[in-house]
Amino acid sequence: MKIYNTLTRKKEEFVPIVPGEVKMYVCGPTVYNFFHIGNGRTFIIFDTVRRYLEYRGYKVKFIQNFTDIDDKMINKANSEGITVKELGDKYIKEYYQDADALQIERATVNPRATEYIGDIIKFVDDLIKAGFAYEVDGDVYFSTKKFKTYGKLAGQNLEDLQAGARINIDERKNDPMDFAVWKAQKPGEPAWESPWGLGRPGWHIECSCMAKKILGDTIDIHAGGMDLKFPHHENEIAQSEAVTGKPFANYWMHAAFVNVDNKKMSKSLNNFFTAREILEEYDSDAIRFLMLSGHYRIQINFTKELLDSAKASIERLYNCINNLENLISEVKIKDISEDEKLYLKSLDKYRDKFIEKMDDDFNTADAISVLFDLSKDINNNINIDSSKELCEGAVELIRELGMSLGILQKHQEKNLETEIQELIDKRQQARKDRDFALADKIRDDLKARNIILEDTPQGVRWKKVD
Ligand code: AMP
Ligand code: ZN
Fold first, then answer.
1. Number of folded domains that form the chain
2. Of 380, 403, 426, at which residue does a domain stop?
3. Where is the motif 'KMSKS' region annotated in this sequence (predicted)?
4. Model pTM?
5. How far is the CA of 329 from the centre of ligand 1 (A)?
6. Cα dihedral sign for 283, 284, 285, 289?
C-alpha cells in the first residue's frame, strides 16, 4: 500500500511500526460551533482511510482530538454567557450527532485538550529543561532556531519562512517565528495553575502532548486538513521531536479543501454550510459519495448541483443492490450452479481492482468507478433465472467494498404490507412453538403502531385503526 507523505513529498510504501497495527492521529474540530461540510470532508476522508486500513486487516488505533480551549472558544462562551466547559460539552455532543449521521466511525479515543492540562504542563516544562523553550512574563515560547530542522514539513528553511511571515514585532520573542506553547492568563479567561503562573496551553502543544500520551513517541500516520500543514503541524513536529529526540510521525497526510466559488469554505469567510443543514436534505451516502468522488489531495468545489448529481449516482448503485435483494426473495432456484460459481468467482477481479486503486494512496475516485463497473456486470448477468446463492454472493461483494468507503450499507425500506405480513408469520410460528410471550409481544408492538390483528377462520387479518 502506498501513501503520499507530505513530509517527503513522495508516494511511499506504507510500513507500520508494529506489523499489522496502525497508530493514527487526526486533528479534530475546535468545538465552538457546528462543523461545516469542509471540515466534514476532512473527517470523512480520514474515516475512510481508517476504514480501508481496517478492511486490509490492520488494527487501527484512531485518535481525533477536540480543541476545547482557545480564543474562539473563549469569545463564543463569553458571548453566550456560558462557561468554556459548557460550550465544549454542547458542541462535542453536536459533533457526535453529525459525525454519526455521516457514518464516521467513532474514534478509539477523542481526547479533550482540557483533560490533559497536567501532561501539557509537564511537556512544556520538559521543553524548557531541554533548552527548546523560554518563559517571558508567564508566557512560554518555543525557540524555533533551536530546532535545526524547523520547516521540514513546509519544505522551507527558517530564513525563508521568516522572510515570508508577516512581520510581527513582539519584543518579547527571541525570533518572530517563535510560537507560544503556554499563554499567561488575560482578564476573564479560564486558567490553570502552572510553574509560570496562571495560564492555558497553546494550540499546537495539545496535539503533541495527547498524541504522545495516547499513542507513544512515534506514530504511523498524522493527518489533518491542508491548512494545518503550516504552522500547526510544523510546530507539532518541532515540539515533539525536541522532547523525545525521535521522529514524531512517519507519514503525514493532508486533505485538500472544500471550496465555495474557489475560496476555502470557512467560518471566517461566512461561505459555509453546516453538516447539520446539509444532512436535513441529503443522507450520508450522497455526501460521502461527493467527498470521495475526487481524490483527497484535490480540492473540490461545493455546490448543491454536485450534491444532487452525487445523490443520483449513488442511487444507481443502490438500484443494483435493491434489485439483487428483491431477486433473493423472488428467484425459484436456491443453490448455485457450476457456471454461476465461475461467474461469481470472476467478480473477484473487481475486488482486486478496487484494492489496487485504494492501495494507491487511497484513490477513492477510481475505486468508485470500479463499483460502477461491478454493478454494470451484475445488472447484465444476474436476473430472475439466477440462483438465490449467486444473488447473495453478488450483493455481499458490493456491500463489502462499499463498507470500506462508508457507503452502500442502507437497506431498502420494506413496504408496510410486507413488513406486517412478516411479523404475522413470525407470530404464528411463535404460537406453534408455544412461545406465547413472543407472540403477545409482536401483537402488542403492532397495537402500539395502531395495527390490530384479528384471528379469523381464513387466517390472521390486520387492520389499521386511528
Ligand atoms: P477546525 O475546527 O477549523 O480546526 O477544523 C477541523 C478540521 O477541518 C481540520 O483538520 C481542518 O484542516 C479541516 N478544514 C477546515 N476547513 C476546511 C475546508 N474548507 N475543507 C476541508 N477541510 C477543512
Ligand atoms: Zn493538531
1. 3
2. 403
3. 264-268
4. 0.90
5. 45
6. positive
